[in-house]
Structures are given as C-alpha cells and as structure tokens.
Design goal:
There is one protein chain. By secondary structure, the protein is of the alpha+beta class. The chain has two domains: about 10-45; about 50-140. The chain contains five helices and six strands; from the N terminus they run βββββααβααα. It has helices at about 65-75, 80-95, 105-120, 120-130, 135-155, and strands at about 10-20, 25-30, 35-45, 50, 60, 100-105.
C-alpha cells in the first residue's frame, strides 16, 4: 500500500479490525519512510449488471437514479427513510444475486413496483401510472382493483386471532 503522504511503497499494518457489520476490514498502517499513520478499508466489490435500456443503449447502474425514482413516487407519503433504504438494498441485492452481466431496464422497473407495493399503495399506483403509461381511468381502476384483490386475499388467508 502506497503512503498517501510521501508516496513510499512500503507500509506496515499495525492493527486490523472487522467492521461491526462484518462487511469491511479496517487497517491501521504506518509508513516505513515518513513514519506517518493512516487508515485503509478493505471492502468486497461486487459488480452490478449493466442496464440495457428500451432503445438498446447500455448504462451503468446508478443507485442515485433508483433512489430518485422511489422518492418521487413516495413524495408526501408517510414512508420512513429507513424503509426506502431497505427497499433500495433489496433491489440492489436482487440485481447482484441475479448473476447476470446485463439486465433489462424493465426488470428494474418491476422490482421497483414490487417494493413500492410493499411500502405504500398510493406510491405504487403513482409509479405504475407512469411506468406502464396509463392512458385512461380504466387502467387506474384496474391497478387499484389488483391491490384490493390482494388485500382481500391476504385477509381471507389470515387466521383469526384467539382473543
């Protein structure tokens, strides 16, 4: 590891610790030439698949774009930042674990819709109306009916409490 102060190539590791989450290693180092100390972090680097857009162009995955899309749909909705962060992490994990080198943008849209449906039904309808290009009220009604059906199905499947 090169010293950030004098650019000397030889440094000595003084201390090594795993992070609290166990996803990185912190190393305290000392330069053998200038004797200054510095910290380095070692993290796992997993490549995200390249996004293939509808027009065939390819672009790198940008978490900021994903967050912006979710936040736009969730604007003025009672959803915590932690819940949004969790949704983003789940989407990123699905993309990483897919093992694909390329993924269609439509697949990401479907993942976003699935997460929004879990977080907030209104945000889901907002996103779906743009993503699926709703053209009339009937398409909104169909999306709302789909949510109502899922809600009724999940309530019917729930066991009654013994209170």
């Amino acid at each position: 590891m090169r010293c950030p102060f004098c650019q000397h190539e030889e440094t000595q590791v003084l201390d090594t610790r795993a992070s609290d989450e166990g996803d990185s290693v912190r190393r305290r180092r000392r330069c053998s030439q200038c004797d200054k100390r510095f910290t380095t972090y070692e993290r796992i680097e997993l490549a995200m698949p390249v996004i293939v857009k509808k027009n065939g162009s390819r672009t790198e995955f940008e978490p900021a774009k994903l967050r912006a899309s979710l936040m736009l749909a969730l604007r003025k909705r009672p959803v915590s930042a932690d819940a949004v962060d969790g949704a983003i992490l789940r989407i990123e994990e699905k993309l990483r674990s897919s093992g694909e080198r390329e993924i269609m943008s439509g697949q990401i849209g479907e993942l976003v819709m699935r997460e929004l449906k879990r977080l907030d039904k209104i945000a889901y309808i907002r996103f779906a109306s743009v993503y699926r290009s709703f053209e009339d009220v009937a398409e909104f009604r169909d999306a709302i009916d789909e949510i109502d059906l899922e809600r009724k199905t999940s309530k019917a499947g729930a066991k009654p409490s013994l209170s």
